TrEMBL record:
GO BP term, pick one: amide catabolic process
UniProt keyword ATP-binding present: no
Alphabetical keyword list: Hydrolase
Cross-referenced InterPro entries: C-N_Hydrolase (IPR003010), C-N_Hydrolase_sf (IPR036526), Nit1/2_C-N_Hydrolase (IPR045254)
Organism: Capronia epimyces CBS 606.96
CN hydrolase domain segment(s): 1-250
Protein name: CN hydrolase domain-containing protein
Length: 272
């Protein structure tokens, strides 16, 4: 976790040097463990986490908004933990928190991985209303939530102008679905989509696909970073963290929504 904090601090410096208003970091930026037992054992309350406290200090020192995915203990404590996304404001305070709704349980054997996040992670039970920022109203979701349109549509109805999908996508599912699902969520909600993604090998069991992307409200990719297949395999484990800088224009949301008004027939399907 000390190494991961140092990597994030490098990105803070890059963000400040670029004049960014906010820094978006991936899901599980504090750690990705090799087992459920290890994941639970590493988890700390934010008040004790050197990783979180380090980022809070970085936010204060640089007057920078920081959005980051971490792990937190359940309350009351249990044999599972929470996968959360927190907003750290310019004063270094945690101003907003979202707990991942949909945990990542897949079995792609024999040609892919078997992962069961539910062994160690307690799913959330709330779609948290959008958080107002200098970039507009931002709706928080995490990784596997991407596969379900309902939370994104709810956040749109609650006023979201951008959706966040910090992730650590697997390589097989990243190849198949990452870009197309992100663009779909942007198009159907007419919102910006900001998807900060981990990239490369974490341990002997886990490799993340990467491909950090920002998508405009009309589904256009306005910026992206490499995915794991683009990288020199010898440099994947040693390379410096990379950052994408994008201008988020809230006027683009108004223009797209005015040009193509999506008037849903809620009298026909009120559950959406």
């Amino acid at each position: 976790m000390a190494h991961n904090l140092a990597q994030c601090q490098k990105l803070v410096k890059k963000a400040v040097d670029a004049g960014a208003k906010a820094l978006f970091l991936p899901e599980a930026s504090d750690y990705i463990a090799s087992s459920a037992t290890e994941s639970v054992g590493l988890c700390q309350d934010v008040s004790k986490s050197l990783f979180v406290r380090g980022l809070q200090q970085a936010a204060r020192d640089n007057s920078l908004l920081i959005n980051v995915g971490i792990h937190e203990p359940t309350d009351p404590p249990s044999d599972r933990i929470k996968n959360t996304l927190i907003w750290i404001d310019k004063e270094g305070e945690i101003a907003h928190r979202y707990q991942k709704l949909h945990v990542f349980d897949i079995d792609l054997r024999p040609n892919g991985p078997r992962l069961k996040e539910s062994d160690s992670v307690q799913p959330g039970n709330e779609i948290v209303p959008p958080y107002p920022t200098v970039l507009g109203k931002l709706g928080s979701l995490i990784c596997f939530d991407l596969r379900f349109p309902e939370p994104a549509l709810r956040l749109r109805r609650q006023g979201a102008e951008a959706l966040l999908y910090p992730s650590a996508f697997t390589v097989p599912t990243g190849k198949l679905h990452w870009e197309i699902l992100l663009r779909s969520r942007a198009i159907e909600t007419q919102s910006w989509v900001i998807a900060a993604a981990q990239c490369g090998r974490h341990n002997e069991k886990r490799v993340s696909y990467g491909d950090s992307i920002v998508i405009s409200p009309n589904g256009h990719i306005v910026g992206r970073l490499d995915h794991v297949e683009d990288l020199d395999k010898e440099k994947v484990d040693t390379r410096e963290p990379d950052m994408l800088t994008v201008d988020i224009d809230s006027k683009a949301v108004d223009e797209v929504r005015r040009g193509i008004p999506l008037l849903r027939r809620t009298d026909v399907y009120p559950e959406i």
